Amino acid sequence: MHAQIEPARVTDILQVLADHPRYWGERDLRPLHQLALVQEFGSTCLVARAEDGIRGYLIGFVTPAGVGYVHLIATRDDTRGSGLGRSLYAAFADAAQRQGADRLKAITSVANTGSIAFHRTLGFDARVEEDYNGPGRTMVVFTRALPFEGPLGNC
Prior knowledge:
This protein is of the alpha+beta class.
């Protein structure tokens, strides 16, 4: 079944939060779902909507320095491996580029091997940065230039 990628609404994020384990399993990332991000950066916060609900979503924004930053990206448990995450990233890259972004950035914990593998398949450079998220909070930082040809397509 096809999913349409479109700008997210606050009600979409509330729906995602109500069904949080379908997107994040046992990890509780509800506090990271800041509704103000959707309110303020609506054109770069995206959902993949289908007849059976929201299959995936991405919360992101473009910084004043021209960085398209992906705060969160998730796909529902029954859609993983379908290419939906790649499609959400491609749509975000396009929206970010229209707003003047010249590169993409995302972060994850060093323990999140799934996210690390996913971003590497999309051609992101990954580097481990000590104390990135505060003292003792090492993170993996992903970056990739825009525009680019490759795993995301023509973005």
